Amino acid sequence: MTSPAAASSPATVLVFLDPAFQDGRLADASKPQLMATDQGATRGDGVFESLLAVGGQPRKLQAHLNRLAGSARLLELDIPAEESWRRAITTAISEYRGQHVPGSVENDELVVKLLVTRGVEGSAAPTCWVQTSAPGPAGRRQRETGVDVILLDRGYDSEVGERAPWLLLGAKTLSYAVNMAALRYARAQGADDVIFTSADGRVLEGPTSTVLLAHLETTDDGAGGVRTIRRLITPQLDSGILPGTSQGALFTAAKAAGWELGYGPLEPRDLYDADAVWLISSIRLLAPVNHIDGKEIGTPELRRQLTAELNALYATIE
């Protein structure tokens, strides 16, 4: 007997978290599954996570589950237990891989999304599901060739998160209309992506990524030679940005490899003066920034060198 998911296009697999199905309920992605009155559709009221599975293994899964739970708490959403998510993720990945030829590009990398809405209006139960699909070609291309970005004002200062917690700046919510509008605006200007700045001039984050920058410093090693200090910096987490799971994992790996770490505050001039800048996210991974507002960052050779070093560190992350 063919399962519902097997009847749909292999491009997407859906698994709903359903108390009646211990390992999740497979659903046909080619047919409507969400009620028109679901508050995720009518209000964008919900949270989500996106992560990468490589060779069938989800990366940084615990970090994503922790952030999903944190986002849900900020929205006062009661979501299923972590084990229910793990089982549904396993079902979704296994179903997707079963529909593809082993060793294909699609099987090497897989996008896994965890989604929660407040549910149908009038219902006390959230709607929760796992979605698996192949990553788009743009992400892989931008890892390899880099991106050109522009700076855009996000419209409020870097302390607004503390003054106005109802803005949910620390939550990964379904309300991504502004982020997508920023990306469309950037592309209309001939750029690939955006780095947001605050009204008081601080560097924040990208619409779907965390900002990283690197500085190299040559100093006396005390024995008549020189040594190079590698410093990796990201904006302050209390400036109204989403804590990046990839940034956190990379910082841990970089520290073990001898890099010095730092957290802002950062201003645009810090980006221009850096030896390299990246946008990092769970799906695209490290995308080196070639230009910001038309100004080249570092040199092509140094960007390639440092990107290769950090990619090697990131490859050690589970």
Your description of this structure?
- With 318 residues, the protein is α+β, with helices and mostly antiparallel strands.
- The chain has two domains: 4-135, D-amino Acid Aminotransferase, Chain A, domain 1, CATH 3.30.470; 140-314, D-amino Acid Aminotransferase, Chain A, domain 2.
- Helices cover 32% and strands 29% of the residues.
- It has eleven helices and 14 strands.
- Strands 7, 8, 9, 10, 11, 12, 13 and 14 form an eight-stranded mixed sheet that branches. A six-stranded antiparallel sheet has the order 2-1-6-5-3-4.
- A hairpin with a 5-residue loop joins β9 (210-220) and β10.
- The protein is globular.
Give the tags:
D-amino Acid Aminotransferase, Chain A, domain 1, six-stranded antiparallel sheet, 14 strands, 2 domains, eight-stranded mixed sheet, 318 residues, alpha+beta
| Sequence stretches where pLDDT stays below 50 over 5 or more residues | 1-9
Give the radius of gyration. 21 Å
CATH superfamily of the largest domain: D-amino Acid Aminotransferase, subunit A, domain 2
CATH topology of the largest domain: D-amino Acid Aminotransferase, Chain A, domain 2
Proper CATH architecture of the largest domain:
Alpha-Beta Barrel
Overall shape: globular
Distance between the termini: 36 Å
The domain tally reads 2
Estimate the helix proportion, in percent: 25-40%
Q: How many helices?
A: 11
Strand coverage percent: 25-35%
Q: pLDDT average, as an integer?
A: 91
Largest sheet: 8 strands, mixed
The first-level CATH class name of the largest domain: Alpha Beta
Structural class by sheet pairing and helices: alpha+beta
Give the helices and strands as they follow along the chain.
HEEHEEHHHEEHEHHEEEHEHEEEH
Number of strands: 14
